């Protein structure tokens, strides 16, 4: 019975953790792009994003990570032989990378707070895809364990990464074009009225 409780809350924990990580970097993107706004909107937006980032990180993302890790320890304590499984070692490697990503997000959040972040909105969009790749890899390992069809899975993950990179580039290009069109339209309006 303890195993089921640990597993249930492990799943709840990682859902909360990943939701926080996905949204946190999205807030970073908005925070960086607020620099393009005129004053006083720039300051208002940046202050608001900073509040939202801190609340999300400390109230949702951190607790999600802690619950995930605590419940994983509980799962292993009920089945210690699982530590001998190769798939679990690979999964734990991805989790360690994810924990590093989590803490790197805290570092970016602090840099954004003092206007020292050198990342562009487009670079942050690419960074925002990292947890997606890890989520897919971790879930595939947890579901298939040692029977993971590595050929198909490897190619699927590779294709997903390429698709995400292409999508990010196309989206960024579309946003630039839309902004240029809007700027051109705004520039033409006063000329037509005179």
TrEMBL record:
Subcellular location: Cell membrane
InterPro entries: HemJ-like (IPR005265)
Record keywords: Cell membrane, Heme, Iron, Membrane, Metal-binding, Oxidoreductase, Transmembrane, Transmembrane helix
Catalytic function, reaction form: protoporphyrinogen IX + 3 A = protoporphyrin IX + 3 AH2
Record's bilayer topology term: Multi-pass membrane protein
Cofactor needs: heme b
GO molecular-function terms, A-Z: metal ion binding; protoporphyrinogen oxidase activity
Pathway as given in its UniProt record: Porphyrin-containing compound metabolism; protoporphyrin-IX biosynthesis; protoporphyrin-IX from protoporphyrinogen-IX: step 1/1
Major location (coarse): membrane
Protein transport as UniProt keyword: no
Presence of the UniProt keyword Heme in the record: yes
GO cellular component: plasma membrane
Family the UniProt entry places it in: Belongs to the HemJ family.
Subunit structure: Homodimer.
Matching PANTHER family: PROTOPORPHYRINOGEN IX OXIDASE (PTHR40255:SF1), UPF0093 MEMBRANE PROTEIN SLR1790 (PTHR40255)
Function text: Catalyzes the oxidation of protoporphyrinogen IX to protoporphyrin IX.
Listed HAMAP family: HemJ
Protein name stated in the entry: Protoporphyrinogen IX oxidase
The organism of origin for this protein: Nostoc edaphicum CCNP1411
């Amino acid at each position: 019975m303890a195993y089921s409780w640990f597993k249930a809350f492990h799943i709840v924990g990682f859902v909360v953790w990943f939701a926080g990580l996905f949204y946190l970097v999205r807030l970073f993107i908005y925070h960086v792009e607020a620099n393009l706004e005129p004053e006083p909107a720039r300051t208002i937006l940046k202050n608001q994003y900073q509040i939202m980032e801190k609340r999300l990180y400390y109230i949702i993302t951190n607790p999600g990570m802690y619950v995930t890790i605590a419940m994983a320890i509980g799962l292993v304590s009920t089945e210690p032989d699982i530590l001998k499984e190769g798939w679990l070692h690979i999964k734990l490697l991805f989790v360690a990378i994810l924990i590093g990503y989590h803490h790197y997000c805290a570092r970016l959040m602090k840099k954004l707070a003092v206007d020292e972040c050198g990342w562009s909105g487009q670079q942050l969009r690419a960074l925002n895809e990292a947890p997606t790749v890890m989520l897919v890899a971790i879930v595939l390992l947890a579901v298939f364990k040692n029977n993971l069809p590595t050929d198909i899975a490897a190619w699927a993950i590779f294709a997903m990464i390429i698709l995400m990179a292409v999508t990010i580039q196309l989206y960024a290009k579309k946003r630039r074009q839309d902004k240029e069109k809007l700027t051109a339209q705004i520039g033409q309006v006063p000329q037509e009225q005179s």
